[in-house]
Write a structure and sequence with these properties.
Blueprint lengths: L10 E5 L2 H4 L12 H7 L16 H15 L3 E5 L2 H4 L9 H16 L3 E7 L5 H4 L7 H18 L5 E6 L1 H9 L11 H25 L4 E7 L3 E3 L4 H24 L4 H10 L3 H4 L12 E5 L4 E5 L7 E3 L16 H14 L3 E7 L15 H19 L4 E7 L18 E4 L5 E4 L1 H10 L7
Parallel strand pairs: 1-2, 1-11, 2-3, 3-4, 4-5, 5-7, 6-8, 7-10, 10-11
Antiparallel strand pairs: 8-9, 12-13
The chain binds methoxycarbonyl-substituted glucoimidazole.
The site of methoxycarbonyl-substituted glucoimidazole has 11 residues, from loops.
Length: 447
């Protein structure tokens, strides 16, 4: 199975995100983000690092685009740092911030690489957080102003626009579990955030249509197959509620304009006032042109009477990545086929898929054969979904290079290029980069 067996116009790319690679955290007029503040707070990041410098992509973007060219990709997914554009979140525009993304897009196009732009990949301007962040509907309005400005400035050259990266992480990981910025641990707050982000998505899509009818817009969701650990009724019930929490809490509003009733009723019992907030969720259901699917692994759950979802994650015996995530390639096929069956027809992009492994620089080489196997199996399972008629239009490997892995700092490496943090952030192609390049050039097969 070679690249040429995929559709001729299939996009093969890599993905990154602003806070994870750019650095220049306080340069050229950029304002503070919630991740600048969170990373500087003691104890939040496992290795005590920050994104202050990261991969210094802000200064090295031409070099990094040359790496894309060297790989032979035809697409690149990146995100814009909102506080680089609006240092206070709204109001005054930072021209140098706009100039950076203008130059980035021009260089991509010059190199024949199609941009997929994500408006929001978690780095909210801190001044908006001082007023409640995503719990405050003023932030929805500020996001619309930010989105409209970028549509106006870049819409003539950027065709593919994603509103949000992983609303599940923006809401539950960051406001219920507290593991990401702003580090709040309150389910009711997380539900309010999820709602406002979904409303912001719908309003931005509507505004995009008026501004840029030729462009294509969508949202990026992290999606997981959720399997019961046994065939017992209780474990199957646990999988249904966990699937609502992980996947359908965002899929159903975006595609159906409603929350999944099975879980909504659970939350209504918990928070009586809950229902009235959520009548406006139809706003989220603006027709989108594509869905970005971030796939990394599956979830296996069993019944847990003590938990709100009556479910808990079960760690099955399996090969795992350095993040501890089960390696489950058939899951990408399962999720793509399911989305097409239950929410389609909709163009799909695998907007993130990749793995962290304990990559070591030895004699100038990084022999990451596990990553090659990982990608090979996920490419094959994506192809099997296409063979079943699923309109998958592209695939972006996470990530171009090792970068700031959120609460793990620089301790987890996902890149096709190794970043030597001890030698001026030098980018070194891993064996997987060489393999990917040969695949893209039809030199090797996936067997
Ligand atoms: C549980 O996996 C999530 O879907 C997920 C994994 N990842 C993501 N989301 C984020 O979009 C990236 O910024 C992360 O760097 C990347 C690797 O952790």
């Amino acid at each position: 199975m070679k690249r040429e067996m995929f559709p001729g116009d299939f996009l093969w790319g890599v993905a990154t995100a602003s806070y994870q690679i750019e650095g220049a955290y306080n340069e050229d007029g950029k304002g503070e983000s919630i991740w600048d503040r969170f990373a500087h707070a003691p104890g939040k990041i496992k290795d005590g690092t920050t994104g202050d410098v990261a991969c210094d992509h802000y200064h090295r973007y031409r070099e990094d685009i040359a790496l894309l060219k060297e790989l032979g990709v035809n697409a690149y997914r990146f995100s814009v740092s909102w506080p680089r554009i609006f240092p206070c979140g709204k109001g005054e525009v930072n021209q140098k911030g706009l100039d950076f993304y203008d130059a980035l897009v021009d260089e991509l196009l010059k190199q024949g690489i199609k941009p997929l732009l994500t408006l929001y990949h978690w780095d909210l301007p801190q001044p908006l957080q001082f007023h409640g962040g995503w719990t405050n509907t003023d932030t929805v309005q500020a996001f619309l102003e930010y989105a409209m400005l970028l549509f106006k400035k870049l819409g003539d050259r950027v065709e593919l626009w994603a509103t949000f990266n992983e609303p599940w992480c923006i809401s539950f990981l960051a406001h219920e579990l507290g593991e990401h910025a702003p580090g709040i641990k309150d389910l009711r707050t997380a539900l309010q955030v999820a709602h406002n982000v979904l409303v912001a998505h719908g309003k931005a899509v509507k505004a995009f249509r008026s501004e840029n009818p030729s462009g294509k817009t969508g949202i990026v969701l992290n999606l997981y197959p959720v399997h019961p650990s046994s065939e017992s009724e209780q474990d199957k019930e646990a999988a249904i509620l966990s699937d609502c929490y992980r996947n359908r809490w965002f899929l159903d509003p975006v595609f159906k304009g409603e929350y999944p009733q099975e879980l909504l009723s659970v939350y209504q019992k918990l928070y009586g006032d809950f229902a009235k907030d959520y009548e406006s969720i139809q706003v989220a259901c603006e027709k989108i042109d594509f869905l970005g699917v971030n796939y990394y692994s599956r979830e296996v759950v069993s019944h847990d009477p003590k938990s709100i979802l009556k479910s808990k994650t079960v760690k099955v015996e399996a090969k795992r990545t350095d993040m501890g995530w089960e390696i489950y390639p058939q899951g990408i096929q399962e999720i793509l086929v399911r989305i097409n069956r239950e929410y389609g027809p909709i163009d799909l992009y695998v907007t993130e898929n990749g793995a962290a492994f304990k990559d070591e620089l030895k004699d100038g080489e990084i022999r990451d054969y596990e990553r090659i196997d990982f990608l090979k199996e996920h490419f094959k399972n994506t192809y099997y979904a296409i063979q079943q008629g699923v309109p998958v239009k592209g695939y972006f490997v996470w990530s171009l290079m090792d970068n700031f892995e959120w609460a793990h700092g620089y301790s987890k490496r996902f890149g096709l290029f190794y970043v030597d943090y001890n030698d001026n952030l030098k980018r070194i192609p891993k064996e997987s980069a060489r393999w990917f390049k040969k695949f893209l050039n039809n030199e090797i097969s996936l067997e």
